[in-house]
Design a protein that fits this description.
Deoxyribonuclease I, Chain A, six-stranded mixed sheet, globular, 240 residues
Length: 240
């Protein structure tokens, strides 16, 4: 296998642009995206309610994927944070704390996945909304993601970076990785909020051995309503 599809999607707790929480709409969007590995942010997981209330488990069961949760905080007695879905099993899972004192807890969820004979290190990231907060998180990313000693495969970092001003986080990652050249694939890189896009918050970074064949924001009638973000989707292949 020389190519695969990845996606990152902030699902906003399943709450759509109409104010209604419907995880089934997120499911329909993910079915249409049809990615092999999906990084989700802002996922709510209640253990003792209906199946739909444990959003990660519901989506994974309906899609037939493996899933893992990286908890960043509790939200009304539910586990809240990042979730990674995958058609392939996880070889390793590790949650990385990117929280800054005085701000909402944030994190990255690392999953090691073997695609064919190649090992992928997927980092599912959700950063803070304050500029000073992201400056500190850029240092944490450099220490725990870029300079991790136990990384021997291909790195993919994707998620909601909230780095609308292209600050230190963007500069740090761009120096290390290839930033998805969205302008080569889509007419507009601004995709937040979904109905009236003003900002570019969602990104994908790849190791140099990987390349983007196609990239797009998945925009259709369902995705425009299901969340305040749109899924960012990329078809990726190996250079060698």
């Amino acid at each position: 296998m020389r190519s695969f599809r990845i996606a990152t999607y902030n699902i906003h707790k399943g709450r759509g642009m109409d104010g209604r929480t419907r995880i089934d709409r997120i499911l329909q969007v993910l079915r249409a995206v049809d990615a092999d590995v999906i990084a989700l942010q802002e996922v709510i997981n209640h253990a003792d309610r209906t199946p739909e209330d444990h959003q990660a488990c519901y989506l994974a069961d309906q899609l037939g994927y493996s899933f893992t949760v990286g908890e960043t905080r509790r939200h009304r007695d539910a586990v809240y944070g990042n979730v990674t879905l995958s058609r392939w099993k996880f070889e390793r899972v590790h949650a990385i704390d990117l929280s800054v004192e005085g701000r909402e807890p944030r994190g990255a969820l690392r999953t090691d996945i073997r695609a064919g004979g190649e090992l992928l290190h997927i980092f599912n990231v959700h950063l803070g909304t304050a500029i000073r907060e992201r400056r500190t998180q850029a240092c944490l990313i450099d220490r725990h993601l870029l300079k991790a000693l136990d990384v021997s495969g291909h790195r993919i970092i994707m998620g909601d970076f909230n780095d609308w001003n292209h600050g230190l986080v963007t500069r740090t990652l761009s120096e290390e990785f290839h930033l998805t050249d969205l302008a080569a694939h889509v007419p507009r890189t601004r995709a937040y909020p979904a109905l009236l896009p003003l900002l570019h918050l969602d990104h994908i970074y790849l190791d140099h051995e990987l390349k983007i064949d196609k990239a797009r924001f998945h925009r259709d009638r369902q995705s425009l309503m299901a969340s305040d973000h749109l899924p960012l989707v990329a078809d990726v292949s190996f250079r060698r």
